[in-house]
Each structure stands twice: as structure tokens, then as C-alpha cells.
């Protein structure tokens, strides 16, 4: 099939909500390491990694070999049977989460992980009220769509009850600044609701994305997380950390965002980079939570499938061998510094923010962001887009991106933003 035939089928046969990134859609023919080739043979530097997922690079040989070896043993058996790599991976993953976490369930995706986490939280607390950030994104199932604060993602149907949206701590833009001396004004409003629930003997459930990815790489400051932790303790909030995008080294310096920012979630949700793009998610929780849901029945036919588990085991080995947490922290810091140095004074750019290998360029308008997205593609660089108004360029490359790759990215932005 040629480009036109492929695009025609996508346009006429796929659901109308399957929308390509570019007016002239990119049709991929090959991907290797940090590069993607289109159907005409044009090579791109991939600074978006399949939406912050292919962290160990495309077609990673070590991961491919591990998956092929598992394929030759067996590909699918389902949760009704047991197999060694899943047992091994469960121990390795729980170990990365730290001592408090002792139980897990493997899903197929981030959405499924968050959906299950909410279900467990409700079952464990007998509470129905869910609090989530106004710029958060948590997935595409019914419940996770509405737990997503960005209402552009909401389906035009009636929302499930008892979901409250808390102002996102985009603290650099805050006019109040009360958090510098006392509790932050956006948390105060939530605390009033928390108190009402406590008075009824109920625990509020809160979902936090430590860095808000789809919302435009919003990075709350450390003092906000400290304040949030105090509030969580005070009101006995049941905390779910959505680490679908921030997990597995993406934020640098720690395996998960909750570890970097000092949060102590009851449940941790994972997906995306967990298996470098093979479908897998995980929900990790504590023994005390497990006790409360021990009578619950839950199943997933494909969840924790052997091929994805084989990939996931290799991902963790690579993260450790390549010292990814430190590399991401250091290279990410230098990239953020360079991007700010060259572009923060640019008239079209409001600010540049980030953590590790997640950097957002916040443009004044969505048109300017779209123009930058398209111009970057013409110059051979693939980046993403986010933010409530689609006005933020997201740079979320594979964690194997080198200083040379970042240098090339900066040079392309120099041309693009001219
Ligand atoms: C923070 C976060 N949570 C959940 C999801 C949903 O993951 P998936 O698309 O794999 O279902 C995403 C996807 O972008 C995400 O960024």
C-alpha cells in the first residue's frame, strides 16, 4: 500500500476519534534506537518515544531477544496458570517500589491500572469521593476518563458521581503565593471537602500524577508535595499515585515520581515504559490494602502476559546496568538549562519546565505550538503536544537519549523558533 491508500483507510475505516498528529500524517516504516524512518525513507530523531513509552529505545536488541526467547517457550497462558518469569518480575518490581509494597496485579495498560486502583481504593475505604488535579490525565476507560481533569477528554455523557477536581499546582503562575507562608489556597478548598468526609467517618481518595504529562509537563514544586503530604496525613487521604508516565526513571534521580517527591501512596499505578511498549501495566499496593480487598474477584485474560513480562524484566536490568536514574537526572538537568537559556526569552514561549526526560515548552498559543510541532518534523525531529489548550510542546525522548541527541534537539529548536 502507498501512503495515500494507508491514510485513506485510517480516515474512512477507523473510529473518528483516531486522529493523527500531523495534517500530513507520519507513516512509520522502521524504528531503531532513538530514530524513526517514514515510508519515504526520511529519518527522524524521536524525542517523544511513542508517547513516553519506548524508554529503552526502539527495537532494543536485548528486549527483542528476551521476548523472542519467551515466544519460543510459550506466548500466552493467562492468570489461571503460573510461570516463573512473572514470579521473578513481581519480586524485582516490588523491590523497586520499596518496603511498604507487598502486593501487585498485572494489567494491560495504564488506564486499566488506574481504573483498578480506584476500584481497590473504593473497596478498601468504602468511600466514593475521588479528588484529582484539574490538568491531570488518567486514561481512557469510563472511570479514568472522568478522573481526568482535562475535560476535553471527557465523553459527552453523564459523568460518574463524586469526582472533584482540585486546582493543579501550577505554582509559578499563582497570584496568591499563600503557600510560601501557610497552606496553599488550592489545597485549602480540597481540605474543606476532606473534612466533611472525615466527619462522616470517610477517607477521601486522591489521585496524583507527580508530573502532569498530558496536562503539559506541569511540575509542582517540592514545597507543594511537602504540604500535600501533611494534608494527606491530617485527613487520612487514601493516595493513588499515577506513575504511568513518571515511572521507570522518566523523572530522573528515582525509579518513581513518588520517591523523588517524597509522597507515600497507598497504591501505585504503572504502564507505558514498564515493558518498553509491550502491553503491560501494574497496580502495586500495601498489605493493609490487600487485607481489605481479599474477597474481591478480579481477572484479566491478557494481563501480565509472558511476552510483556519478558520485556519488563529486561527493562529493569537495562535501567540498572545503564545507571539510567542518574543519567536521566544529569542529562535532563542540562537539557532543561539549555532550553531555558536559548528559548525562555523567545516571544512565543511563556516558560519552559520539566523533570528528567520530560520537558514542556509552554507556548502563548496553540497555533504557535502546532507550528513548532510541524516545523520540528520538517527538520527531522519528532516531539509531542499537550496542555489544556494544546499549547505545550512535550519533549519526552527515550531514556537512552545521549547528550549529542539533546544537542541536536536544541539546534533544531533554534531553527524552528527563528
Ligand atoms: C499519567 C497517565 N495515566 C494513565 C494513562 C493511560 O494509559 P494508557 O493509554 O496506556 O491506557 C496515561 C496515558 O497517556 C497517562 O499519561
From TrEMBL:
Q: Which family does it belong to?
A: Belongs to the class-III pyridoxal-phosphate-dependent aminotransferase family.
**Cofactors that this protein relies on:** pyridoxal 5'-phosphate
Keywords, ordered alphabetically: Aminotransferase, Pyridoxal phosphate, Transferase, Transit peptide
**Subunit (UniProt):** Homotetramer.
Query: Which leading EC class covers this enzyme?
Result: transferase
EC code? 2.6.1.44
Report the PANTHER family cross-referenced here: ALANINE--GLYOXYLATE AMINOTRANSFERASE 2, MITOCHONDRIAL (PTHR45688:SF3), PTHR45688
Q: Does the record bear Kinase in its keywords?
A: no
Q: Pfam families annotated for this entry?
A: Aminotran_3 (PF00202)
Q: Does the keyword Lyase apply?
A: no
A molecular function (GO) held by this record is: alanine-glyoxylate transaminase activity
Record InterPro entries: Aminotrans_3, Aminotrans_3_PPA_site, PyrdxlP-dep_Trfase, PyrdxlP-dep_Trfase_major, PyrdxlP-dep_Trfase_small
**What name does this protein carry?**
alanine--glyoxylate transaminase
- To which species is this protein native? Candidatus Wallbacteria bacterium GWC2_49_35
